[in-house]
Amino acid sequence: MKTEQPPVIRLSDYTAPAFRIERTDLTFDLDPERTLVEARLDIARTDGDAQSLALDAEGMELLDLQLDGRALDAAEFRLDQDVLSIAEVPERFTLSAKVAIDPQSNTRLEGLYRSNGVFCTQCEAEGFRRIAPSIDRPDMLSRYRVTIRADKASCPVLLSNGNLVDSGDLEGGRHYAVWEDPFPKPSYLFALVAGDLAWIPDRFTTKSGRDVDLRIYVEHGNEARARYAMEALKRSMRWDEERFGLEYDLDIFNIVAVSDFNMGAMENKSLNVFNAKYILADPETATDADFAAIESIVGHEYFHNWTGNRITCRDWFQLSLKEGLTVFRDQEFTADMRSRPVKRIQDVRMLRARQFPEDAGPLAHPVRPDSYMEINNFYTATVYEKGAEVIRMLHALLGEEGFQKGMRRYIERHDGQAVTCDDFVAAMAGANDVDLDHFKLWYSQAGTPEVTAEGHYDGAAKTYSLSLTQRTPPTPGQAKKSPLMIPLSVALIDPEGGNQTLTLAGEDRGEETVLHLTQDRQTFTFENVPRAPKPSLNRGFSAPVRLTQPLARTDLAFLMAEDTDPFARWEAGQQYACDLLLEMIEAIGRGEAAEADPAFVEAMGRTLTNDDLDEAFRAQVMVLPSEEYIGEQMKTVDVDAIHAARETLKRAIADRLYDDLLAAYEGRRDNEPFAPTAEQAGRRALKNACLGLLVASGTADSAELARLQYDTANNMTDRMAAMALLTAYGLLRRR
Q1: What is d(CA 320, CA 727) in angstroms, rounded to the nearest whole number?
Q2: Residues 6+ apart with CB under 8 A from 509
Q3: Which of 126, 473, 498, 636 has the maximum number of C-beta atoms within 10 A of its C-beta?
C-alpha cells in the first residue's frame, strides 16, 4: 500500500513527450492468474536532447526486454517506482517487452481484470500502465494491432478495438483473434474483452453506403433485454450523420455489457464497455426513465467516436474537451428524440442539484482545473455538466449554423490529434470570424455567476431598458473574479402572450435575441416597444447562472401561463411555487393557517388544459419543487413545515382542478400495449402527475384509482408511480 503523498500535477508544467510510439503490437496469452503480455513498440525520438526512455509499468513482472531484437542486460535498464527506464536509446528503434500480470487478483478493476469469468479492461485514466509498458498519457497516439489467445471453452469471445482481421484455432483447445485499429489512439482507449458471452447482431448502413456490423454482448440469458439498446445505437448513428455530418468509420461496432464494470460506460474505440444496468431493459423491470437513460448513455459513448476518440484531449486538464462536448451532444440527441423542453428542464435540475453546490463549496474548481493530485477525482459535475453548458453557450452565441461551421473546422483541423480546449474555441472563432478570447474565461474561472436584472418601461419614449449586473462569488484559490461573457437569451412578452419584435440600437433582432453581457453592469434599451412587456430572461437556460429579477406574483403567473419559451415558463412556475411555499412555511411557523394563492392554481390549470403543449412538458409543470429544494432556500430548515406546506398546496391544486385532473388522467388510461417511445412516456408522465395530485386531495375515489392502476398496470412506470403514492399516503390495503 502506498503511503506517500502523490505529487501535484500542474497544467503549467505540461511538456510534450520526448518520444512517440508510432505503432503498438500486443499479444495476450490469457490466463486468470498469470496472463502473459508481449508488447512490441515502434518508437521515435521527438526531442533531440532526450537520451533516456521512461515507460509507465505498474504492478507487472518483467520477463524479457529487447531493443531492436537484442536482449538488454540488467545494467541497461531499471524497473523502479512503476517506471521502466532505459538509459541509452537510438533515434528510432523497436522495443519488445514480455510481462506477466494477474487479472484475477486485480481488485482495483483498472487495467486488465477478470470477474465473473470474463476478462475485461478499463484503462481511463491511467489503467493501461497496469497491462504493458508504455507511455500512458492521452497525447501519446499510436496505431494498435492486438492478438488475443485464450481457452476456447471458457473464452469463446475474443474482442479488442478496430476490425477483426484474423482468427482461428490453436492446439490444446485454445484459439486466437487478431484485431487491428487503423486509427491512432491513446492508450486509455485500448480495450480487451474475453469470455463466454452471448450476443445479438444487427447492421447499420451509413450515409455513404457502407455496411457496419453491430453486436451487443451480454451475459447469457440477457439477449432479449439488449434489443432496446441496439435500437438506441442505430438511432445514435443516424442522428450523428444527420445533425453533425459524422459517419462511423470502421466495419464493426461492439458493445459489451457486464455486471462487474466499475464505471457506467467507457467509449473505447469501436468496443464500448458498459455496466449492464445501462444496457439491459424490459417492461417488467424498467421504467420510462430507465429506457431514456439507456438511450442517452448509448448515444453518449457512441458520440465519443469523434469527440474524444478521433480527436482526443492533449492532457487530463482538458478532460472537458471530450466530456463537456459529448455531454452537450448527447443532450441534443435526447432532445431531438424526446421532448426538448423536458430534457432541458431535467438537465438544469441536475446542474442545480449537483454542480451549483460544487461551485459554491470548498471543492469548487474551474471546468479546466489548474492542478490535481489524483486524476480519478477529476470526473466531476463541473467538468461534465458545466462543461456541457459552456459548449451550449457557444451554441447560443453562434447559432446552430455557426456552431456546425465551427465543428466542421474543428474536425478538419484536428482529426487524429490530441488537442486542448483552446484549440476547440479557436476553431469556433475562426470558422465564424468572431473574437472568443473573453469567452474562454469560462474554462479557467470557477464559481456560478449571479446575474441581477432590472427592467424599466418608458411609455412616452416607447422603450424598455433592461439593466443587467453580474457577480461571481469568491471560490478557493480565486478570491477576485473577472466579468464573464454571458449569453442571455431574451424575449419581451406582450399582454396578449405573444413575443414582441425586438429592436436594439436600430437593429431588428426578431422576436428573441441573445444579449452579450460582458461587463459588471450593462443596460440594453429596446426601441419601438408599444406596450409594457413582461421580460422573459435566460430562455432555454442559455447561461448557467443564478438569475434574480424582481417580478411580482402577477407577472410570474402571467409568464407561467403565457411565456412562449417552455423552459422560461416552467422556471416562472417553479419560482412562483417556491415563493408561495416559503410564505406558507412561515405562516405555519407562526401557528397560522397556510393559504394557497388561487392565481398560482389558475395558472397551473391553464397549462394542464393547454393541448398545444406536449404532455411530457405539462407533467413537469404539474410537479411542485421538491422538499429538498425548498429546504435549500431556507436558513433554518423546518422539515415538518415544508412537508405540511407542500401537501397543503397540492390539496389546493387538486380541489380547484379536480375535474380537469381527472379528465386528463382518465383520457390516458387506455392501457395500450407498452412501448418505450417518447410519446407513450409523455402520456404516462402526465397521467401519473395528475394521479399524484388527485391522491393528495384525500378522496376515496382517487385512492381507488391508485390501487386500480397498481393492480392493472402493464408497465413498471405506472406500477411504481401507483406504489409510491399508496405508500406515501398510507393507502395500502391490509391483507
Answers
A1: 42
A2: 502, 503
A3: 126
- Cβ atoms of 487 and 555 within 8 Å: the answer is no
Write out pLDDT tens, residues 431-469: 999 999 999 999 999 999 999 999 999 999 999 999 999
Task: Please state the rounded mean pLDDT for residues 203-218.
Answer: 98
Which member of 301, 358, 562, 571 is catalytic?
Answer: 301
523 DSSP β-pair partners: 467
Among residues 261, 247, 250, the alpha carbon closest in space to that of 297 is found at: 261
Strands (E), 431-584: 450-458, 463-471, 486-493, 502-504, 507-510, 513-517, 521-527, 534-537, 546-548
Instruction: Say whether 615 is catalytic.
Output: no
Listing DSSP states for 171-239 in one string gives: GGGEEEEEEEEEEEE-GGG--EEEES-EEEEEEEE-TTS-EEEEEEEE-TT-SGGGHHHHHHHHHHHHH
Q: Cell triple for residue 144?
A: 494498435
Residue 291 sits at the vertex; the CA angle it makes with 116 and 355, to the nearest 5 degrees, is 90
Nearest of 295, 111, 336, 302 to residue 204 by alpha carbon: 302
Predicted local confidence at residue 1, as pLDDT: 53
Backbone angles phi, psi at 383, to 5 degrees: -65, -40
Q: Given pLDDT bands bounded at 50, 70 and 90, which one contains residue 166?
A: very high
Instruction: Give the β-pairing of 192-195 and 157-160.
Output: antiparallel
Q: Which of 346, 315, 351 is nearest to 543 (CA)?
A: 351
* Bridge partner residues of 84 (DSSP): 55, 79
Rounded distance between C-alpha atoms, residue 670 and residue 661, angstroms: 16
Partnered with residue 193 across adjacent β-strands are: 120, 159
Which tens digits make up the pLDDT trace of 561-592?
999 999 999 999 999 999 999 999 999 999 99
Separation of alpha carbons 661 and 646, rounded Å: 18
Spatial distance between the Cα atoms of 328 and 391, rounded to a whole number of angstroms = 7
| Residue 364 · residue 204 · CB < 8 Å | no
Q: Which residues does 709 contact at the CB level (< 8 Å), separation at least 6?
A: 669, 691, 718, 719, 721, 722
Residue with the three cell numbers 503480455: 37
Whether the CB-CB separation of 189 and 229 falls below 8 Å is answered with no
3-state secondary structure of 523: strand
Cell of 89: 536509446
Position 18, amino acid: A
Using the structure block, give the residue that is written with the C-alpha cell 479488442: 160
- Would you state the cell numbers that stand for residue 565, as one nine-digit string? 419559451
What is the sign, positive or negative, of the torsion defined by CA atoms of 709, 712, 717, 720?
Answer: positive
From residue 401, give the alpha-carbon distance in Å to each of 397, 407, 497.
Answer: 11, 10, 29
Identify the CA nearest to 325 among candidates 341, 304, 346, 345. Answer: 304
Q: Is 342 exposed, middle or buried (0-12, 13-18, 19+ CB in 10 A)?
A: buried
The arrangement of strands across the sheet holding 192-195 comes to 111-115, 118-122, 192-195, 157-160
Instruction: Express each pLDDT in 601-639 by its tens digit.
Output: 999 999 999 999 999 999 999 999 999 999 989 999 999
The letter for the amino acid at 353 is A
Neighbours of 473 (CB within 10 A): 16
What are the beta bridge partners of residue 527?
Answer: 503
